[in-house]
Write a structure and sequence with these properties.
374 residues, alpha/beta, Spore Coat Polysaccharide Biosynthesis Protein SpsA, Chain A, seven-stranded mixed β-sheet, three-stranded antiparallel β-sheet, 18% strand
Length: 374
C-alpha cells in the first residue's frame, strides 16, 4: 500500500469518525430549565415582515421569557407586534450605526435597556425556525452551572435548487463536526449567557465597533477563559434561498478571517488536505482510492440522516436532506466549493450584510456605507 493511499484512507476515516462521533453523542435525555428573569433578544431589519412563523414558534417555547426586539426605528412590523402584544414584547429603537455593525449596534442598545430582573439572556436570529425546546435547552447548562456561554448551531434548509443544496452540503460539514468546549465558538442565532457573565465580559464594550456579534462574544469568552458549551441537539433550522447562497458562505468565512486569521488558516489547512486528496484520488489514485472516498461519503450521509432525524421536524428533515445527495453523487464538489469559499473570503475585507457594506480590520469596522434598507 502506497503512502499516499494510506494517508487518503486516514483522511477519509477521520472525516467519517467525526460525524459518527457527533451522532453518538447526541443527548438522549434533553433536559430543560425555565427560570424566572429570561429575556430573548432579537435584532430585526426595517424591512422585517413580522416573522409570523418565528413568533408562533417563540410563543410555544417551554420556557417563559420576555421578547426584546431591537430595530433601527423604522420597522413597521415590529412596531405593530409590540403594540399588539406588549404584555411580552418590548421594542427598542436603536437608530443607525456609524462605526459598527448595525446588528451589533442594535444589540448594544437592547442590552442597555435590560431591566433589573433580567437574569438570563438568550440571543436569536430572525431567520431561524426554532424547536419548542430551544430556550429551555440553552438555559439548562447555564442554570445548572455547567457552562458560561451556551450555543446551538444553524442547519440550512436549502431551496430545491442545485446551488442552494450544494451550499447546504458545505454547511452540513460544519454543523456535524465534533464539538468540544475548548474549540467552540458561539453562534448568534441561538446563544445564551447569564446577566452576570455579560457584566463580567463588559459585553457592551466587547461588542463596541465590531461587525460580528457572535465572534466578538466568543473571542471575549476565550480570553476570559469562560466555559463555552455547544448543545448538540440544537441544530436549528434556517431556510436558505438559492440566490446569494455562495455569497452567504463566503461572508461567514470573511467574518472569521477578519476576526481571527489563525482560526481561518487552521480551517483552510484541514479542508485543503481533503480537497487535494480528492484531486489525487480522481487523477492518479485509481478506482480503489475513489471507492474509499465514496464509501466514506456514504457513511457520512447515513450518519447525518440519523442526526437530522434526531434533531429536526419531519418536514425540516426532508428539506435538509436535499444537501445530503451532494455527498453521495459528488463529494469532491462539496469539498472544492467549501475550499473556494474559504479562499474567496480572504480576497477582500469588505462584507455586505443587512443593507450595508462594511470594511473590517481585526474584527473592527473601519468604514461602512449604506446600500439598502437597514
Amino acid at each position: 500500500m502506497s503512502f499516499a493511499f494510506a494517508l487518503w484512507m486516514l483522511l477519509q476515516g477521520l472525516s467519517l469518525l467525526g460525524v459518527l462521533n457527533y451522532w453518538r453523542h447526541l443527548p438522549v435525555d434533553r433536559k430543560e430549565e425555565a427560570p424566572e428573569g429570561v429575556v430573548v433578544l432579537l435584532s430585526v431589519r426595517d424591512d422585517w415582515d413580522g416573522g409570523a412563523e418565528l413568533i408562533a414558534r417563540l410563543k410555544v417555547q417551554t420556557a417563559r421569557f420576555r421578547l426584546v426586539i431591537a430595530s433601527s426605528g423604522g420597522c413597521a412590523a415590529a412596531e405593530a407586534l409590540a403594540a399588539r402584544e406588549g404584555d411580552w414584547v418590548q421594542i427598542v429603537r436603536a437608530g443607525v450605526a456609524v462605526d459598527e455593525g448595525q446588528k451589533v449596534h442594535k444589540l448594544r442598545v437592547a442590552l442597555r435597556a435590560l431591566r433589573p430582573e433580567d437574569r438570563w439572556l438568550v440571543f436569536v436570529d430572525a431567520d431561524i425556525l426554532p424547536p419548542a425546546r430551544l430556550v429551555g435547552r440553552l438555559l439548562f447548562p447555564l442554570v445548572r452551572g455547567k457552562a458560561d456561554i451556551v450555543t446551538g448551531y444553524r442547519l440550512l434548509l436549502p431551496e430545491a435548487r442545485v446551488g442552494a443544496a450544494l451550499v447546504g452540503a458545505v454547511e452540513m460539514q460544519l454543523a456535524t463536526l465534533p464539538r468540544a468546549a475548548s474549540a467552540t465558538m458561539p453562534w448568534g442565532g441561538a446563544m445564551a449567557l447569564s446577566r452576570e457573565v455579560a457584566e463580567r465580559l463588559d459585553l457592551d464594550a466587547a461588542l463596541a465597533g465590531r461587525l460580528s456579534d457572535d465572534m466578538a462574544i466568543g473571542l471575549a469568552g476565550w480570553r476570559a477563559k469562560l466555559r463555552l458549551r455547544p448543545v448538540r441537539d440544537l441544530l436549528v433550522a434556517c431556510p436558505l434561498e438559492a440566490r446569494g447562497a455562495f455569497g452567504f458562505g463566503v461572508r461567514q468565512y470573511r467574518h472569521i478571517v477578519t476576526n481571527s486569521a489563525g482560526m481561518w488558516a487552521v480551517a483552510t489547512l484541514v479542508l485543503g488536505c481533503q480537497a487535494l486528496g480528492w484531486v489525487w484520488a480522481l487523477g492518479w489514485g485509481g478506482l480503489w482510492a475513489v471507492a474509499v472516498g465514496y464509501a466514506a461519503a456514504v457513511g457520512r450521509v447515513l450518519a447525518r440522516r440519523r442526526i437530522l432525524a434526531g434533531v429536526l421536524e419531519p418536514e425540516q428533515v426532508r428539506a435538509a436532506g436535499r444537501s445530503l445527495w451532494w455527498d453521495v453523487v459528488a463529494p469532491f464538489a462539496v469539498c472544492w466549493v467549501h475550499l473556494g469559499m474559504q479562499v474567496a473570503a480572504v480576497c477582500s475585507r469588505r462584507i455586505r450584510w443587512g443593507g450595508f457594506d462594511y470594511w473590517v480590520s481585526k474584527g473592527k469596522v473601519v468604514r461602512m456605507e449604506r446600500v439598502g434598507l437597514r
